[in-house]
Amino acid sequence: MTEKVAFSYTDYPEVILACGEWLYGGGSDPRFRLDKLLSKVGQHQLPVRKGTHHFQVIYRLSPTDNSGPNHSYQDLTVGPVPQLGVIDMAGPPPDFTSITGTGGHVETLLQEIGHAWLVYHSDIRFLADGQVVAPDLKDWFENNQGVPYSGPLLVGRQCMHWGSYFQADGSPIDGLVFQIQNQEDGFDHWSCQGTGQMEVTYPGGDTRQLTTGPYNDLDLVMMGALEKENAYQSTGGSFSWIEPRLVAPQSYRAGLFLAFQFALINQENPRLSLDNDFYYFGFSNDHRRLAVERSDGSVLGEVMLGSDYHPLGNQNTGVALRAVRRGDSYDFQYRYDNATYPLVSSPSELGGQYDYSSVPGLFEGVDPQVTSQLGAQPFRTVATVRDSREPLEIGILVATYAPKPCFVEAVFFDLETYTRPLTLQEILRQEEIARLTGIPFVNRSGSHVYPFATVPPAYQWGKALQPGEPVLHERARGPKVWSDRSRLHIRLPIEIPTHAEPTIVDTHCFNCEADCTPPLPRDEDAPPYNHGPRVDMAPRVGLQPPAGDFAFGSSVRIQHTLYQRSSGGFETDVHIWGRARSLPAKSLIITTPMSHRQVSGPYNIAYFIVAQQRSDITQQAIAHVERVRRYVSQAFHQATQGRRGLRSGLIWPKPGIIEVDVPS
Description:
Layout: E1 4-8, E2 15-19, H1 21-24, H2 31-38, E3 55-60, E4 70-72, E5 85-88, H3 99-114, E6 126-128, E7 131-133, H4 139-145, E8 176-180, E9 188-195, E10 198-201, E11 207-210, H5 217-223, E12 238-248, E13 252-261, E14 277-284, E15 289-294, E16 299-304, E17 318-326, E18 329-337, E19 380-386, E20 393-400, E21 407-412, E22 414-419, H6 424-437, E23 446-451, E24 471-473, E25 480-484, E26 487-492, E27 540-543, E28 550-562, E29 574-584, H7 592-597, E30 603-611, H8 619-639, E31 646-647, E32 657-661
Parallel strand pairs: 2-30, 3-5, 3-30, 30-31
Antiparallel strand pairs: 1-2, 1-32, 4-5, 6-7, 8-9, 9-29, 10-11, 12-29, 13-14, 13-20, 14-15, 15-16, 17-18, 17-28, 18-19, 20-27, 21-26, 21-28, 22-23, 22-28, 24-27, 25-26
């Protein structure tokens, strides 16, 4: 007996129920099978055949994969109308009566329908200054290597959505909305307002606010719905993006640490395990914020740096951080500083001062013997904590955190310690003890500077820290640590290549043949580079603490921070400092593939619910899809600013059930 697929006509004739074990395929993506079947049916057999509709939207009950909604199966060769895409919406939400669920599907469908034209990065080209320019697909790689961007920062997630640094005016294709703020020290300052918004009045008078905006002008030009010369009239005909230098807030910390306990996991009796117990002091989540925190996540004190701090300028570019121990009390203090500013060829560039050999005045006021060197602002205390234990390690650390890793590069001028200088009597006493014990006495009192002319040697696992010998703890392969002009740079990437050689890329985006999606690293090398109670993946430079009362510190600067380019559609309340760039819309080259997709509307669209058998589909499910159908038509018309529409009416050969043989 020939297997069949049953297409059912219901009270909602614009929603097609397609049922059968072969088509349902156990809940897997049915588009290939449906496409094959619709290519074989006769002219008057079904209301939909391949070549009759620009779009098909498929809902399937109990999907067995986690692919989520997606657009595919574009075929511009069929007719009488080209097939712009078949959209798999996977399973409908469980609450079919929820207007919130319906609104979410409307927004998703605006994006998936938009993928018929957008964003095909391989087709996007611009003619600028006589050169053909393509979107930058390797920005993550360029950030890791510290080299300039090779093109406009336009693309984002899967190279099929707008990126998170493009002023995309809230486009349904992950577009963000930015507001231009004031310039700071020669850099542009943008604030992200999140995704766009669009108020849609649906059939029946129901008005709803969607969390997406209309298609932007570049969208409409690529769709063929707007002439290039008429685009972006409010901005002089140009679209813009920003090349980021600093992004805030993000999930990172960079600064000093005090370690009082190291994690020790007892596999046989987990209750006897020990956690890392660290205090952190420095930049936390924002280059404008300092915080004293503990590895359990508690915040012990915080301060926002004021308008006198200029990380992008040439004065007050860094922050001098220090921790001062007196007995069992620890003061965490800061003040503005210039020591992290790069070396210059002329002292006039730093107001007449040459490069420093240590952080100026880092320990002034710690005891009466250390007086002010510069007459600078006094150190301010962010928090004071008490801990009677002896610290095990001090030093500097940079870490990034879940749920979404970020890119951060911090610069440290040096690592310095200070203890009260020994008196002559104390020195003589220590020398006598050394003579009796045979253990040499090394006077480590006073101020000691550990410069970063080179990267400290790697820590050898299991070996005790030695006095006066900083070591580098680096558990993961992804971070990059190097010395440049006697400053230590620690750069934590968002993505890393799989090879040990960082200049090699060995991956392909699943949507194209370009090396545009960062490769998957080994789990132990992958970001984020966390440091917490049971995790120790953050690079740090550690030093054995001096005995008794002491102080230690450094001058720290946040050099570069950013989020993933695929954050478009997800970032809100974020500020970016960088270089704004722009291109005229008329510089867009309408490539041959792009022109083939520029089909005039209105567009025929059909909706299917696919199930194993008709009894699996509830009346509520059908009503939900019907409501989505009506709402999407209105939303799409409005999103295209009235330039395009959807047509979803169907003409059935006959009411009831139409059975079609499964193609061989």
